[in-house]
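[job 0412] stage=fold_complex status=start
inputs:
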Amino acid sequence: MKFSGPSVAYSILGLLASLLIPLFLDAYYLHILISILFWGYLGSCWNILGGYAGQFSFGHAAFFGVGAYTSSLLFVDAGISPWIGMLLGAILALLLGLFIGYLCFRYGLKGPYFALSMLACAQMLQIIAVNWKAVKGALGVLIPLGDSFLNFTFKNRLPYYYVILAMIIGILILTKWIQEKRLGYYFFAIREDEDAAKALGINIQKYKMIAMALSAFTTAMGGTFYAQYYYYIDPSLSFGGPVSIDILLRPIVGGPGTVFGPLVGSILLSPLSEITRSLFRQYSGLHNMIFGSLLIATVIFLPRGIMGLVKDIGHQISKKKKVEPK
Amino acid sequence: MNLLEVKGLTKRFGGVTAVNRVDFSIARGEILGMIGPNGAGKTTLFHLISGFHLGDEGHILFKGEEISSLRPDQICKKGIARTFQIVRPFSHLTVLQNVTIGALNRIPEVNLAQQVALETLRFTGLDKKKNQVGIHLTTPERKRLELTRALATRPELLLLDEVMAGLRPKEIEEMVRLIQDIRGKGITVLVIEHIMKVIMSLSDRIVVLNYGEKIATGTPAEIAKDQKVIKAYLGKEYAFVER
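[job 0412] stage=fold_complex status=done
writing structure:
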């Protein structure tokens, strides 16, 4: 990876700010901050598959739910630390991802067909979770309250903040790394034109599977975080359609296929979601309508997201600078 | 030994036989032209050699090795690169990124691949456009990008599918010179082209297809005299053109 002087300085400054600022926030604002990072994290996980490799998943809740359920059930029923459960859930989601990926990519399902297959997968898992006694059916899983690092349960919100901060830094570094390696170039090639990619020696099946595996693994870890943070999961909170939509909304609005797009999208949308949710509490569903309108507007006016707009403005400024000396 | 050997290759689409028991071979270092009327099966033949279609019968031997059941990416790794008749640049990537993806075929390290991509761009004369995004290129530039990208995979055999279609006379001249330079680097070239003047002057040998069958093969001079070819494709004005 290349690091230039100012960018290192900015990252250190950013890191210090993100470490210190939450110390001075009250619980509500800390919650908003956590939800920004949390949805930014999940968006970044989706981004690897949907933004970089161009395989638009409409059912990432499948991986999210597998992560949430695996760690929660292991914790509640077998007393296994959620940290270990997080890893096991991620591995399980990875296997699930490889399975769906194998079926979809082998038969060349692309675009909307792949998206719908993913949606169907998440729906099936939701129905299974509702009807299966062993996973506590529609009742869901309650995580016992506590305050122990080993059990990934904290009284205070601050530790959760630092956990999700570490997670999003991890996924951003991973994304940046992918972008600069052959992997990222090949993902882009597959996203742009599969036939041309094949002709240039790219085994598209293999690289799609890699994207799927990375995305599924990391998304499931977000599921565990959710369960531990909210102390409760049920089939629709884990596998439901709204979860899938929430996951893909941030990267699409922020700019798919860019390192910071999902986080930028989350900085915009997550507070909006929290605020509209509390403002229009009596009109249930209204915040979803506002969300939907924003998505439509983005797709129409900013097809490459906010990061695309930022890049365009950057180009314009640099063009003007070049012209001025005349 | 010939670099590429095609034996009895047949491809049917339902009731239509697009390529019918075609045999031909390419010697190392040769420029082989392929001509024929529209629908003669030229592009299908390209798809078969590059692995995009699976043949129904016959063999394709590259350096003596059977490749007819390999995937496109495996064939590219073996050393055969192709361009598409309808160009397919990676539209949202820059020219340099486009070509780097080609170079990554042999060089897994991005920085080194980028160096190779830059060299290849200089060779094809597209280096001034390296920071342009694919969709902003003109048609001739796109054709050239397509060729550069294929070249960056470091092939031994390059398949060019109508890289001159839609170009102006001056651009065609440049492209002809470029293809000769490519051969000068020791790369064998198979070209499909409709512009007769070009194919006659560029090719060492020519294969003529009609209705999926090979109807003639030989030097340009021989092809120009061949009665079957004149009837099927050339028309009278080319009947006695000497090189």
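[job 0412] summary: The longest strand of chain B covers residues 16-26.
[job 0412] exit 0
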